[in-house]
Amino acid sequence: MIYLILILLFILSLVITYGYIHLAVRKKWLDVPNQRSSHTRIVPRGGGLVFISLWLLAAVIASFFQLWTVRQFLAVIPSAIIIAVTAFYDDRHSLSAKYRSCAYVAAACISVGALGGFDHLIIAKNLSIPLGWLGSIIAILIIAWSINLFNFMDGIDSIAGVEALFILGVGGFFLQQSGGQSMAFLSWMLAATIAGFLVLNKSPAKVFMGDVGSASLGFIILVIALLADKYYGIPLLLWLILYGVFLFDATITLVRRILAKEVWYHAHRLHAYQRLHQLGWSHGQVVWAVIGVNSFLAVLAILGFYYQNLMIWLAIFALGVLVLLYKIVENLNPMYRKPNYLPPLKKGD
Fold first, then answer.
1. 121 forms bridges with which residues in the sheet?
2. What are 207-253's pLDDT values in tens digits?
3. What is d(CA 208, CA 206) in angstroms, rounded to the nearest whole number?
4. Rounded Cα gap, residues 165 and 174, in angstroms
């Protein structure tokens, strides 16, 4: 029955996304490329509305079958709706960063509050760090950052969807093995709807997920990770290893842009994956490279799951590999080398 539901969600996502493309063309919900884009064609955007809406509907139905507790439901669904509505409005009307950020932080606060706070961090089996009230502040900040970084990293065909599939697929396995079968099923349902969308989002993409897809995924993935830590004892560190490609590239690039006195929330082409594309790599080649790195990180995370006494060392090893790969990209195409570098946007630009 589980497999049939996953297959049904995949098919529904594919079919409805195909219909959405025609609707978006008629309504002119289009992404027009500019000098900071990694694509050259006009493509319908906002297609993430399909897989997020499908998953939200499935998740609400799942609540009637008690697949998750009231507290877990309240930690995810209301905030996910707030983020999806805000992000889709932004896709259509370019909401200001101030209002968008307020909505995202409010959603993060609602989720952490529904969780009853986040007062400890599990490092490994029988080892956790008490955080007190500071833990809830940290949880809000990392949820807000996850929302934004997923949006930042959604810059070429299918990269965000592929990243989400790895995290939700392997993370769902951790949940299933830890007694969270219902939460694992919810994770895999989202993965199934994303997979249907990816059929039409692969290069050359016929539709983009837009902020409604990327922001929602950044939120849902991080909150599921927090739920897994709090209710099923799955260390957050394992999820961060799985999240490594997006988390590392987005964070390092953000820090470097802030140090360069750029407006951090403005569009750019300075992420490592974008600089590979500027070197002549196709969208597909960059995504396959990400798949390769993600596969390696997934192996490390699975080893950490079964050998939690080695988890910290595995995380350090994963970080070292990501640093090395980033350094290779930097040597091939430095972040601020002309002509690939576009001058930093200043306030008012």
1. 129
2. 999 999 999 999 999 999 999 999 999 999 999 999 999 999 999 99
3. 7
4. 14
